Task: structure prediction
Amino acid sequence: MSKLQPVRGTHDLLPDEYRRFAHVVGAARDVARLYGYREMATPIFEFTELFARGIGETTDVVSKEMYTFKDRGDESLTLRPEYTAGICRAFIFNGELTQQLPLKVFAAGPMFRYERPQKGRQRQFHQIDIEVLGAPEPGADIEVISVAADILDRLGILERCVLKINSLGDPECRAVYRKVLVDYYSRHLDKLSEDSRSRLQRNPLRILDSKDESDKAINVGAPSFADHLNQVSRDFFAAVQDGLTAAGIAFELDPTLVRGLDYYTHTAFEFVTTHIGAQGTVLGGGRYDGLIAELGGPPTAGIGWAGGIERLMMLCNEPAAEPRPVVIAPLGAAAEAKALGIARALRRQGIAVEQDYRGNMKRRLQRANKINARAAIIIGDDELAKGVAQLKDFDSGEQREVALDALASALKG
RNA sequence: GCGGCCGUAGCUCAGUUGGUUAGAGCGCCAGAUUGUGAUUCUGGAUGUCGCCGGUUCAAUUCCGGUCGGCCGCCCCA
Result:
């Protein structure tokens, strides 16, 4: 038993659950397509260097959560912990992608992070992802958030989520603010929690969001980022907010919203919910104008987000039931052989038909009922001789005789 | 990485103040005569009581470890 257990933080997606998984991805894919985003995929592992440089050496994700290993050629590889770096790498590497900007892509797939699992947090988890490269305008921020809102809406969960946005400014004013903040906290070092003291150099903006009571008290007097945004950043953030309002997308300003990946600039946003436990961020992202240059590409603006498929699954209601199949139930060797051809002809017309491999009439109808079939086509020697079948409707229980060549229209009507 | 709770049939759970064959509901399987489901009735099987070790005459029950899940922190999707 213990040997057959999946690795901690991973799990099997059984058919019922996979159906909901596919429902989430399908909805996202459909909406993304409506906005002109094209789907693509990048490898599940990359050179470790890509993530170390892209995400930031000091971030939690890079410093303690990556699945990194050496392959047989002694290369250091890492299972991707997020999608953005890989897509930016592909953008830089594949010149054709740089020819028509902005590039708008949709992607989905597994991500890997060595974290302590709990509800909504696995070591292998799955994300849907949207990126726009080569668009420095606030219109891209607005659009990308709009795609997200529409996906959540299509899944029926938008009203259970709140959109929080913040501006992290450009590198210039962020550096200034960071310094001001570090100075402020340094003056209150003795009252800071242990967590926050370690955050002070690594990611001081995080302290603003601390849940520690003592930290909260200090935060009351902390300098605010809004006061330190330069004019460019201020204008940009205002344009994003105006656009969201114009698009009819509700949002809340959250000055404590700080994303943990180094590459973010300007807009940061999250759709959060209180319905699925502590891991309430269902989708989040932001702008990363410096990332592509940092990775060695041509200076190119970027913005995007990732959504946690498992978290979205927890929140959304059951997808529409699948179409009910028809079961073909032959009796005897001759009918069984004939049924194979009949079933195939019906499937070619788009009718879902299932045929058991064994069993008498009772067993076949029992199984038909179990798989929620809508009808059964019953064929024995008598029917074979007359070129007909008994068509039994499971909901009404009624059964009637139908000519074999009229089966398709009878089942469609 | 830190703190806490939990682990009994496929599922949801009860139970043993340590003591013969560990239970229920749902589900599953088989029957209620010849080629007809679901409903009803009758019968049946569920299981190393997560795993390893310790204490004990005796452990599923107590203790330790381990694996896994969950809750909070951290972090994030």
